[in-house]
């Protein structure tokens, strides 16, 4: 019954969108460019000579064609983060999952099919660490004759939070993986490519947002950082959260937000203070035993025609390890039953016919590379399986029934149960490597419980599922109890998310209907963990009709080197 209700609601919404849908075309030229920051010059791969890259601006339900020209020295792909791409996994973008890389001196055109997404999403490279410099915003405005469920703001501003390295992102991770060592910490954090005034280099620039007194602005905030959750604030101003991951939420006010890598948030702010310059600021949050560097990066919220300075001592942000601040913020995110959202249709207990319980861990494996400087290198796993990228993409192998590329036997339970979030003395948890997929049928009602462990340094994991928005129905600390914890689930107004943070000493539960056939990547959005293997693939088999089956494979897909 749940799937039928969802289908009717989305069909009605889709009919409205198709009446006014438009088609957009963009050209992305990706090449290396030099950028000077922290009094150093770094060479980065960027789009159209810009860091961050160009903004894609469309309306709900539109279709976008992006022609990507690779003028760099190595292959890459681009992912349209949070776009569901109905029946269209071919253009989702993760390397060796849905396509092979776009080779140097070639181009590839992506077809991006928007459906019910609204607000802010983003695009980024999905090859090694290239997304550190190849990324930008996707702004999805309401469809024609559609309004927002909040007063129309007087202006808007995209704010992208980033990690800055004095070096090339790909070279940094390639060197670390070859040596078997963890990648280095970032040298700074950035706001829209600006490092602010806290790093000591006189030529560094600071991002400025100019505002008019008594006007209200919509901030489109994206966390594009590589491995860091981020607090963000504007001093003396209240932030009102209105959307998360391109879905409207029940509005709530806060002095700060907490946003994980991969997530997006739409936030209203009113310029209602005395005219002046106010710091906006960001710093990391971490509950890991090996936290990121605790830098504060600044920007300026500048009232028009005001001339004067800002005082760094006035910056107030939660401490990096302030778990209470984290909980206080995320616990307030709730769905909202407005007409601009799809009807809330959470799979209930009697609907669920696929349950998956997944442990997340950082492990070690023998380092066999000739450049290794340690005997055991880093690995990461889901249910003790560390993902290995195949030589051709999983989607092509699945579609063409090519054997030997992946296995349809990802474990639905961890191979052993222990005190995941407690004392691990004496626990030896063996890890295997492989390309193993979770397979479900079209229409299945799926529940996935994601359980952090204290393996490695512990800490949170922002998990992103491609091709879907899921309902975040539950969370807790300690070890998940399948008998008692489901009674605490929120099945009334759980938010729709595409990226969910799993607390370092706890668990989260998500539910969704498997109504988008295809091959969809699921992975930690801390890039070091994905590089070490904390990922898997969700395969949703075709339904019984053309409308419930994967679209035909385009003839223009980049060729894999071994095919």
How many helical stretches? 5
Largest beta-sheet characterization: 6 strands, mixed
What is the CATH domain class of the domain at 354-548?
Mainly Beta
User: What shape does the CA trace take?
Assistant: globular
Total strands: 32
Per CATH, the architecture of the domain at 354-548 is Sandwich
Q: Proportion of β residues?
A: 35-45%
Low-pLDDT runs of 5+ residues are 3-9
Provide the CATH topology of the domain at 354-548.
Immunoglobulin-like
The strands making up the biggest β-sheet line up spatially as 10-9-12-17-14-15
Provide the gyration radius in Å: 22 Å
Could you state the CATH homologous superfamily of the domain at 354-548?
A: Cupredoxins -  blue copper proteins
Which structural class do the helices and strands define?
mainly beta
Q: What this model shows, in words?
A:
- The chain is mainly beta.
- It has a domain at 354-548: Cupredoxins -  blue copper proteins (Immunoglobulin-like), CATH 2.60.40.
- It is 9% helix and 37% strand.
- The protein is built from 5 helices and 32 strands.
- The protein has a 6-stranded mixed β-sheet with strand order 10-9-12-17-14-15, with no helix packed on it. The protein has a 6-stranded mixed β-sheet with strand order 21-20-25-30-27-28. A 5-stranded mixed β-sheet has the order 11-19-18-13-16, covered by helices on one side.
- The longest helix has 17 residues, at 2-18.
- The protein is globular.
């Amino acid at each position: 019954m749940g799937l039928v209700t969802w289908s009717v609601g989305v069909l009605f919404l889709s009919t409205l969108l198709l009446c006014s849908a438009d088609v957009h075309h963009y050209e992305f030229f990706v090449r290396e460019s030099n950028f000077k920051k922290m009094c150093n010059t770094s060479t980065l791969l960027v789009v159209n000579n810009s860091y961050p890259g160009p903004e894609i601006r469309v309306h709900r339900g539109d279709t976008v064609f992006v022609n990507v020209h690779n003028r760099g020295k190595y292959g890459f792909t681009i992912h349209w983060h949070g776009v569901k791409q109905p029946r269209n996994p071919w253009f989702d973008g993760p390397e060796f999952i849905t396509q092979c890389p776009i080779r140097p001196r070639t181009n590839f055109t992506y077809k991006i099919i928007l459906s019910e997404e609204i607000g802010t999403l983003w695009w980024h490279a999905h090859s090694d660490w290239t997304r550190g410099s190849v990324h930008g915003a996707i702004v999805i405005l309401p469809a024609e004759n559609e309004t927002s469920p909040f007063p129309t703001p007087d202006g808007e501003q995209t704010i992208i939070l980033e990690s800055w390295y004095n070096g090339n992102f790909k070279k940094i991770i390639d060197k670390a993986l070859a040596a078997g060592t963890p990648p280095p910490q970032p040298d700074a954090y950035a706001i829209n490519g600006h490092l602010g005034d806290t790093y000591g280099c006189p030529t560094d620039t600071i991002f400025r947002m100019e505002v008019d007194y008594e006007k209200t602005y919509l901030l489109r905030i994206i966390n594009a950082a590589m491995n860091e959750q981020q607090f963000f604030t504007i001093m003396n101003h209240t932030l009102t959260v209105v959307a998360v991951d391109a879905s409207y939420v029940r509005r709530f006010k806060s002095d700060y937000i907490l946003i994980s890598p991969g997530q997006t948030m739409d936030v209203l702010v009113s310029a209602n203070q005395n005219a002046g310059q106010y710091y906006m600021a960001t710093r990391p949050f971490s509950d890991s035993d090996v936290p990121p560097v605790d830098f504060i990066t600044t920007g300026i919220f500048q009232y028009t025609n005001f001339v004067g300075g800002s005082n760094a001592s006035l910056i107030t942000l939660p401490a990096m390890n302030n778990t209470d601040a984290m909980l206080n913020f995320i616990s307030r995110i709730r769905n909202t039953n407005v007409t601009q959202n799809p009807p809330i249709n959470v799979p209930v207990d009697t609907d669920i016919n696929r349950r998956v319980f997944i442990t997340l861990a950082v492990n070690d494996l023998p380092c066999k590379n000739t450049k290794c400087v340690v005997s055991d290198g880093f690995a990461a796993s889901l249910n003790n399986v560390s993902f290995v990228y195949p030589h051709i993409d999983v989607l092509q192998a699945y579609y063409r029934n090519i054997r030997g590329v992946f296995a349809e036997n990802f474990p639905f339970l961890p191979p052993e149960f222990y005190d995941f979030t407690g004392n691990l003395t004496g626990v030896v948890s063996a890890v295997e490597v492989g390309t193993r997929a979770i397979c479900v049928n079209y229409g299945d009602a799926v529940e996935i419980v994601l359980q952090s462990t204290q393996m490695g340094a512990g800490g949170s994991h922002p998990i992103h599922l491609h091709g879907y928005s899921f309902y975040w129905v539950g969370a807790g600390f300690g070890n998940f109890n399948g008998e008692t914890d489901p009674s605490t689930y929120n099945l009334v107004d759980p938010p729709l998310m595409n990226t969910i943070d799993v607390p370092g000493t706890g668990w989260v539960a998500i539910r969704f209907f498997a109504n988008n056939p295809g091959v969809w990547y699921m992975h930690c959005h801390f890039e070091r963990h994905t590089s070490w293997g904390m990922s898997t693939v969700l395969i949703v088999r075709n339904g019984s009709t053309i409308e419930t089956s994967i679209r035909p494979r385009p003839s223009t897909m980049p060729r894999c080197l071994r095919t």
